[in-house]
From TrEMBL:
Hydrolase found in the keyword field: yes
InterPro entries xrefs: DDH_dom, DHH_sf, DHHA1_dom, RecJ, RecJ_OB, SSDNA_exonuclease_RecJ
Matches recorded under SUPFAM superfamilies: DHH phosphoesterases
UniProt family annotation: Belongs to the RecJ family.
Limits of the DHHA1 domain: 351-442
Keyword hit for Nuclease: yes
One Gene Ontology molecular-function label: nucleic acid binding
The protein's name: Single-stranded-DNA-specific exonuclease RecJ
């Protein structure tokens, strides 16, 4: 409940009124569209019902012609191709798309995923040497490689060509090979925020265009692309939004067997949203690489053998249960370290370390710490070699964690990542120095006021704008049905938050001693609407003491086959 409430700037109201008339929608819907830069009927049509014809030409990406030419030479000459991917969801879905497609065209292809513990993140020397020993002429990396300059030099010396497909921020010098990365400074590709799997998809799209292959087969993999977009938390805008829209449709209507079995084990029903992918599918796919072998995730996503899939899905389900136990245990340990740090209140960062923590879950633990202590966070553990530490970083608004680590790079052996998430390796003896530098660099870009989480609100709304005259509170109102078309939600297109003032509660109570359940109403809207506020028992006293203001999303409650509207409360304050 300690958050800043920031209402977005009001859009041009003349444009709102014009769009409202053109589209025959409510003022609330038109207002939100114009806020998103959608001011015409045609742009709104593209937003709600875009087509795959609107995808960008893959050849707008720098080096794409060279990449297509090199892959075609390998296919024509029967050269051995190795698809090299990262062990997380983005990497394993990327492998499933690229290997799954090309393996239908050649038998001389295999894939490689580095071991999280013995090789670490990205392109490894072991991977390159294994490729050489097994006669591979071409390596295509997916979701990794953009800073693997030394490994590319090794490959070149061994007579192996490389095509790097990555979406991470490049270093000062690109590797000496073919590089596909929309974040290259010299790349004019119109959309910069593709996932790693998205870059791999564009390579296959370019190959299909050049060679006259059936794109329908390619588009059958959009479900995997939607999973990568959700799991890697890339912006749900532009091309990502379009790919995710069609990918979710594919995921729900033509669910591949492995995912279907996994969903059944998780007791998760369809239809799935991008948020469901983040919290149900992604952790289970990730669990394979965190606890055991990420190759099992690729088999789960590509195999048609039901017996094999049932066995792998069950093992991945079990890995996920183990991961959840480790997550809980290590999070509690990390929180205790923070709580016992007498100087913590004076810091802008959280950096915690313990040599026994499981490397596979430290990224999750970093996210948990941000939920409790809203500040840039790094969780570190001992590497297998005993001489280095491995860490995962998560960040907050206003702090580009990649830039911060770059400014600390003289204390690190290696690092890589995005604005909000990154990984790093450092020598044991550098830990104290790194912690000091990290704190110093973060302090240069934020102050104490930035360490309060924000609620970014679309607009203030009255309950009678949600339920039109004659609409029952027991049926999902038209506004909510239209707002569902703003999905898929994700960064830069989050689920809309609204502010309601002068609200009263009826029948307020705590569920399991921590979740506030109540019915809410406003003085000039006497109908009572179901509302729930998770993990905030202290809010009960506020709602019992009279009028309050609340920030909330419009949600649905599905119970015993009946769907009713429900407000999901995000914050509450006494009404002044």
């Amino acid at each position: 409940m300690n958050s800043k409430w920031l209402i977005k700037d009001a859009p041009n109201l003349q444009q709102v009124e014009q769009l409202k008339k053109e589209m025959n929608v409510s003022e609330v819907v038109a207002y939100m569209l114009v806020q998103r830069g959608i001011t015409t009927f045609d742009s709104a049509k593209s937003f709600f019902r875009g087509t795959l014809k609107e995808l960008h030409d893959p050849f707008l990406m720098k080096d794409m012609e060279r990449a297509v030419e090199r892959v075609n030479i390998a296919l024509e000459e029967g050269q051995k191709i190795l698809i090299y991917g990262d062990y997380d969801v983005d990497g394993t879905t990327a492998i499933s798309i690229v290997y799954g497609y090309l393996s239908q065209l050649t038998d001389t292809i295999a894939y490689y995923i580095p071991d999280r513990y013995s090789e670490g993140y990205g392109v490894s020397e072991k991977g390159i040497r294994d490729a050489h020993e097994n006669g591979f002429s071409l390596i295509i990396t997916l979701d990794c490689g953009i800073k693997a300059n030394e490994k590319v030099e090794l490959a070149n010396s061994l007579g192996i060509d490389m095509i790097i497909c990555d979406h991470h921020t490049p270093g000062k010098e690109l590797p000496d090979c073919i590089v596909l990365d929309p974040k290259r400074e010299d790349c004019n590709y119109p959309y910069k925020e593709l996932s790693g799997a998205g870059v791999g998809f564009k390579l296959i799209q370019a190959l299909a265009t050049t060679n006259g292959w059936d794109e329908k087969i390619l588009f059958e993999n959009l479900d995997l692309l939607a999973i990568s977009i959700a799991a890697d938390i890339v912006p749900a805008t532009g091309e990502n939004r379009l790919l995710a829209q069609y990918g979710l449709k594919q995921l729900n209507e033509k669910t591949r067997p492995g995912i279907d079995i996994m969903l059944n084990l998780a007791k998760k029903e369809k239809p799935l949203t991008l948020t469901d992918v983040v919290f149900t599918i992604a952790p289970r796919i990730n669990a394979a690489g965190r606890i055991d072998d990420a190759k099992k995730a690729v088999v789960l996503l590509t195999s048609q053998d039901e017996k094999e899939l049932r066995s792998i899905a069950q093992s991945i389900h079990d890995f996920n249960e183990e991961r959840r136990g480790l997550d809980k245990e290590i999070t509690e340990h990390a929180l205790s370290i923070v709580e016992n740090d007498s100087d913590y209140d004076q810091k802008c960062t959280t950096v915690v370390y313990h040599e026994t923590w499981h490397k596979g879950v430290i990224g999750i633990v970093a996210s948990r710490l941000i939920e409790n202590y809203y500040r840039p966070t790094i969780v570190l553990t001992q590497s297998e070699d005993g001489e280095t530490l491995t860490g995962s970083a998560r960040s907050i608004k206003g702090v580009n964690i990649y830039d911060i680590l770059e400014n600390c790079s003289d204390t690190l052996l290696q690092f890589g990542g995005h604005y909000f998430a990154a990984g790093m390796t450092l020598k044991n003896e550098q830990l104290s120095n790194f912690k000091l530098r990290f704190e110093e660099e973060v302090r240069k870009v934020i102050g104490a006021e930035n360490l309060i989480p924000e609620q970014i609100i679309e607009k203030e709304i009255h309950f009678n704008q949600i339920f039109n005259l004659g609409e029952s509170i027991y049926e999902v109102p038209r506004l909510m049905r239209v707002l569902k078309q703003f999905e898929p939600h994700g960064p830069q297109n989050m689920k809309p938050l609204f502010l309601a003032k002068n609200v009263y509660a009826h029948d307020a109570k705590l569920l399991k001693e921590e979740h506030l359940k109540m019915k809410v109403f406003q003085p000039d809207f006497q109908k009572h609407i179901d509302a729930i506020f998770f993990k905030c028992p202290e809010a009960l006293e506020i709602v019992k003491n009279g009028a309050f203001d609340m920030v909330f999303t419009l949600d649905e409650n599905n119970f015993r086959g009946r769907t009713t509207p429900q407000f999901m409360v995000k914050d509450i304050r006494p009404h002044l």
